Write the C-alpha cells for this entry.
Amino acid sequence: MTNDPFAALSESQRHTAERAIAVVLGAAAISGVRPLTGGVSGAFVFLVEASGRRFVLRIEGSASPLRNPHQYLSMRIAAEEGIAPQLHYFDVNDRVVMMDFIEDRPLETYPGGGSGLARAIGAMLKELQGVPLFPYFVHYPDIVKRLWAHVCKTGLFVEGLLDEASGRLEQICRTYGSENCVSSHNDVLPRNILFDGKRLWLIDWESAYRNDPLVDVATALDNFASSPELEEALLFAWLGDEPDALLRDRLAQVRALTRLYYAGVLFSASALAPRDKPDDSLSAPSSAQFELAIRERRLLAETAETSHVLGKMFLASFLSGSVPPGLPPTYMR
C-alpha cells in the first residue's frame, strides 16, 4: 500500500498536479490530499485541504476522439456567472483545473421535494442559457451519428440488429432543425449537479459548448421529471410559459437524440470488455426489474455488463419514446 495520493498519475500528470497546487496555495501548509472516487468520466479527482479551505483538483484522463477542446473556457464562463464552483486555476494544455470544493447533500433533500428540484433545475438551465456564449464545437446530431457509427462498428451486436435504430436516427437527422444555439452543459445528470443545502451547482463541464437549448432540457427532463406534472414544472421554470405544440415536437425529437447518445456512451464502454460472441438480442429489462437486479447485486454498478444492460434500456427508449431508466445510486457520483 502507498500513502502517495498521486500514485495513479503518470510523471507528467504528477508535475501538473503539484504545479496547480503550488500556484493556488503558494506557501500555505497543506493538511491533506486524497483521491475522490465515484465519478465515471475517467478523470483523476482529488480533495486538497489547506488553511481550513478545501479544493477540488481535477486532471483529465486519456483523451477521447470526441474530446471537447472548449470545456475549460466554458467552465470559466459558468464559474464567473456563479453556476459552476469558483475556479482558482486551469490549464487547457495540461487539462487540469482546481476549484472550490462543494460539500453536497442528497438531491432528495432539496426543499419542496421533486417538484422543488424540477423547478430549480429548470431555472438553472434558463440562467445558464443566458450567460455569454460558449465556443462552438459540433452540430449535436453529428456527434450522435459519430458515436452511433462507432457502436455499429464494434461488433458488439450481430449484423443487422441495430439497423432499425440507425434508420430512425437518419430520419431524425433529416428533419432536425435547431434554434439559435446557447451556452449548454450537455450532460445534465444527477451526478453532475450538487446541492450544498442552499442552492444547486453544475460540475463536470467536459461536454460543455454552444448547442441547441433543448439538449440540456431534454436530458434534465429524463433525469429529474419522472411524471407529467414534474415535466411541466421544469418546463415552465425554464421557459416562463407553456410550451407550444411546435416546441413540444422539437423537444420529443431532441429527447430521442439524447437517449441514443447515452446508449452510445454505454455501449462504447461495454464494447471494451471481452466477449465470446456478438449479442443477438436487444431485449431490455424494465426500470423496476433493473433496480431490483441492482439491489440484489445480480448487476453491479460501473461494470461492463451493467453498462450493456443500461445501453439496451436507453436504446429501447429511443425506439419507443418511453421514459429511459434512471441510473443506480452508485452512478450518481
Summary: Residues 259 and 271 are 18 Å apart (CA to CA). The longest strand covers residues 44-50.
